[in-house]
Amino acid sequence: MKAAELANKIQLVIFDVDGVLTDGGLYFTEDGTELKRFNSLDGHGIKMLKDNGVEVAVITARDSKAVAYRMKNLGITHFYQGQADKVVAFNDLLQKLNLSADEVAYVGDDVIDLPVMTKVGFSIAVANAHDTVKQYAN
Length: 138
Hints:
The protein contains six helices and seven strands. The chain is of the alpha/beta class.
């Protein structure tokens, strides 16, 4: 099936954070406070998805106050932090939103994203993704 046909069924897009919604760098102040660099264009894209009736979620393996602040700013209510096993959060989302895996897209960049990327109807690897991850992208 062609990518456009797969994408037409999507009701939910799930994003990883580090390397997907950020530049992937880890920045810390002198006192150890973590900083993240987000791109405003991603925020606009997320708004466009939501404006067109597509649910948006974030699943990240790390815990970060900066990420929580950005998700609140973007109005993303389906937000899971500290998820070493992202499939648990993925299954929770399917149940909460009454969706099948075929109706979900996932945007990732690293091998920790593969267990979800291999389950969804449409998988996306960002340009700087690990080569293994790119092999699984639609």
